């Protein structure tokens, strides 16, 4: 992968406690304070390497949160899960400081429970009450560090966070399909995140993972409704758009960074998938 000057802030997991717990909980005012301490402008593009589960308390205003060019409106008593590697832009600091709610963050691998991400979720009825109870139990345990051994505390937090995620997953519409953990698509998705700038060929991923291209395509179709090649191309296009909008890199720099032989190959690829040249997309996305 070629080097490129980044204006996307890479944010590493750093809990406020100096102990190795796998998750953390923060309110919006504290989030702003942490941003100031780390000299991070939360309204500017940032790419955390950890999960965010954002909850806005009832009784307030909806909260805007942008993830990879899509602005979500999290309603009061609503939730949004954003996975690691997505590019976030929070609302302005003055908005965040008056927002009441909770953000649960955790390292990849801390839990295995799953739920729909990047779509705001608003549980209703009994689901709402059960989700609230799960969150309260998690917060209570989190607030009593020292009453158990560190290992037992981590285990308890892991279990309670799993309960919260399962409750949220079942409070929304059922997923179109279940994605088996460590199955062909799950492994392909992970490999693409790691290598999309190194190879643009599904056959290379299939060989590395020990599957046939047909198996990867069938698994990707079942999970996403698109082919493995379409999934891979979409990931490359997304990264190209991030770099074009959030950095001042030239199209040639972006092409090198994403593993294209030359700027012409990148422009042809981008136009095929977006309908515009890279620089036309940049100008329109920036309102120029």
From TrEMBL:
One Pfam family per UniProt: HTH_18
Keywords, in A-Z order: DNA-binding, Transcription, Transcription regulation
Listed InterPro entries: Homeodomain-like_sf (IPR009057), HTH_AraC (IPR018060)
Residues of the HTH araC/xylS-type domain: 186-284
Keyword NAD: no
PROSITE patterns (UniProt xref): HTH_ARAC_FAMILY_2
Entry keyword Cytoplasm: no
Annotated SUPFAM superfamilies: Homeodomain-like
Stored PANTHER family: ARAC-FAMILY TRANSCRIPTIONAL REGULATOR, TRANSCRIPTIONAL REGULATORY PROTEIN
Name under which the protein is recorded: AraC family transcriptional regulator
Species annotation: Saccharopolyspora halophila
């Amino acid at each position: 992968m070629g080097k490129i000057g980044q204006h996307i802030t890479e944010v590493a997991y750093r809990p406020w406690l100096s102990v190795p717990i796998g998750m953390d909980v923060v309110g919006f005012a504290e989030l702003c304070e942490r941003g100031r301490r780390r000299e991070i402008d939360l309204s500017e593009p940032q790419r955390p390497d950890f999960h965010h589960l954002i909850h806005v308390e009832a009784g307030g205003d909806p909260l805007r949160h942008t993830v990879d060019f899509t602005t979500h409106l999290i309603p009061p008593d609503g939730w949004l899960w954003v996975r690691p590697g997505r590019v976030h832009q929070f609302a302005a600091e003055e908005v965040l400081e008056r927002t009441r709610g909770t953000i649960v963050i955790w390292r990849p691998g801390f839990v295995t429970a799953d739920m729909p991400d990047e779509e705001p979720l608003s549980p209703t009825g009994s689901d709402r009450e059960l989700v609230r109870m799960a969150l309260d139990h998690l917060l209570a345990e989190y607030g009593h560090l020292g009453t158990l051994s560190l290992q037992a505390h981590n285990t308890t937090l892991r279990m309670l966070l799993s309960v919260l995620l399962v409750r949220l997953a079942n409070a929304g519409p059922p997923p179109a399909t279940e994605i088996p953990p460590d199955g062909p698509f799950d492994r392909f998705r992970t490999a693409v995140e790691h290598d999309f700038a190194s190879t643009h060929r599904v056959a290379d991923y299939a060989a590395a993972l020990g599957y046939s291209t047909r198996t990867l395509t069938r698994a990707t179709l079942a999970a996403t409704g698109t082919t493995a090649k379409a999934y891979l191309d979409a990931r490359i296009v997304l990264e190209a758009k991030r770099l074009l909008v959030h950095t001042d890199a030239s199209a040639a720099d972006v092409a090198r960074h994403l593993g294209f032989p030359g700027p012409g190959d990148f422009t042809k690829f981008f136009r095929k998938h977006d309908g515009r040249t890279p620089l036309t997309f940049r100008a329109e996305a920036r309102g120029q």
